[in-house]
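Thread: "does anyone have the structure for this chain?"

Original post by V.I.:
We have the sequence but no experimental structure in hand. Need at least a predicted one for the grant figures.
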Amino acid sequence: MFELLEAEWRVAETNERIECQRLLIEQLGYEGYDTTSARTVFDSLLVSLALYLQERHRLRAVSQSPQCPRPPIVSRHRGSALKCLERA
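Reply from O.Q.:
Generated one for you, tokens below.
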């Protein structure tokens, strides 16, 4: 499933960006610079990660769920559709 692979990639990429941003905040703070904007970007990356994780979880659940059963074939015999439903 292509969508799941893309979601996995986005989670990994966002994790890398979060780590880079964390290091940038640390460096800026060490050098005495204001980190407000960098922290805003960091917070936005965390929100993005949460959304990507949610999407990945949804896609994993969809890919692991059993296929929906086919609808019963309605025949000329009375009650056959109901019997098919009972067997499913």
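V.I.: this helps a lot. The chain has one domain: 2-64.
O.Q.: and The chain has three helices and no strands.
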